[in-house]
Design a protein that fits this description.
The protein is α+β, with helices and mostly antiparallel strands. It has nine helices and eleven strands. The strands form two sheets. It has a six-stranded antiparallel β-sheet, with helices on both faces. A five-stranded antiparallel β-sheet has the order 1-11-10-9-8. It starts with a strand and ends with a helix.
Length: about 325
């Protein structure tokens, strides 16, 4: 049996809160603001990356096809030089995606039959107004940031329908989605396409429409397209060289993380108090613990219980003697 020491067993060691913004969200936010950053980006271990390299490659083929064909179509339809370039394919929580958008932007909610969920195609309102101006034979120029009028909205819906036809063609071999426009909104906070913690795949595109330039995004629920991406992924055996590389990388990871200090807490069962009892607490008061003498303490790290221990002492230090693990209890 192992012995885990803790200077104060009754007081849990606090775990730093996870950063709200993911690394990929930071990149997109900096691009949207026109800034440039250097150095390492933080990795949030509480939101591990689910978008594998194979998934990214599969989506990249479809997104690049969409960007090229959309640029050609807009150039022909608007009679202006239009260029669309794929910038990045990212994984973000829906809350992070929404918080990174401008307060007023053009958001088109899409169905993605036959897959479940709602997707979003978003780009700047001035770019949308410039497209309409070019479509009607206007000169373009500077455009305001405002919701579209009742006369402009049908024209924009028709233009979006043409864009979605291009997206349907580009994604036919990858996910087979049939995107269709459902609603247009201008405030990101009013669009409830997913819950705040849902993982989304966000494709970012740089749009050059005449004299207008903006960053457009295509946001699709990751859980909806994952089965399609896995179904299209090639299953091939690894070569000996790839196996050696994988084993070497795993060994390097274990070596690098093996000596990392991790705060460990030994917890008693929690006690419930009323607000009045908390306010009236004074030095010398005794709080009864709702923890049976025969019940083991929970040994936790990062909010996860990984062992059970009995309270004890080693020398002048309080300690916990490990007596079991959660998997033994569940068995």
């Amino acid at each position: 049996m192992a012995l885990i020491e803790n200077d104060i067993a009754e007081t849990p060691v606090s775990t730093p809160p996870a950063p709200r913004e993911s690394a990929t969200g930071t990149v997109a936010r900096m691009m949207r603001r026109g800034g440039a950053g250097a150095g390492a980006l933080p990795y949030d271990f509480r939101r591990p990356t689910k978008l594998s390299r194979d998934h990214t490659r599969a989506l990249q083929m479809g997104y690049e096809t969409f960007a090229k064909r959309l640029g050609t179509q807009l150039t022909s339809g608007l009679r202006q030089v239009c260029q669309i370039n794929l910038v990045a394919i990212e994984q973000q929580a829906y809350e992070d995606y929404i918080s990174g958008l401008s307060e007023t932007t053009m958001m088109a909610s899409l169905t993605i039959d036959p897959l479940p969920g709602t997707a979003i195609f978003e780009f700047a309102v001035p770019t949308a107004l410039a497209c309409l101006d070019y479509l009607l034979g206007g000169p373009g120029g500077e455009q305001p940031t405002r919701p579209l009028t009742d006369l402009e909205t049908p024209l924009l819906r028709g233009l979006l329908a043409q864009m979605l036809d291009v997206l349907r063609y580009a994604m036919e071999s990858t996910t087979g989605i049939q995107p269709a426009l459902t609603a247009i909104e201008y405030n990101p906070q009013f669009v409830q396409a997913s819950s705040a913690s849902d993982v989304m795949v966000v494709g970012s595109f740089e749009m050059h429409i005449g004299n207008q330039t903006c960053l457009a995004t295509l946001c699709i629920p990751f859980s909806a397209i994952l089965p399609k991406l896995d179904a299209g992924k090639e299953k091939r055996p690894s070569t000996p060289a790839e196996q050696q590389t994988s084993e070497r990388n795993a060994a390097n990871l274990r070596t690098a993380l093996g000596g990392t200090p991790v705060p460990v807490t030994v917890r008693f069962a929690p006690t419930t108090l009323t607000p009045a009892q908390i306010v009236n607490l004074a030095p010398g008061d005794v709080l009864p613990l709702n923890h049976r003498v025969t019940a083991p303490l929970a040994v936790e790290a990062g909010g996860t219980t990984f062992a059970y221990a009995l309270a004890g002492r080693r020398g002048t230090r309080l300690a916990g003697l490990v007596v079991g693990y959660p998997r033994e209890k569940s068995a």
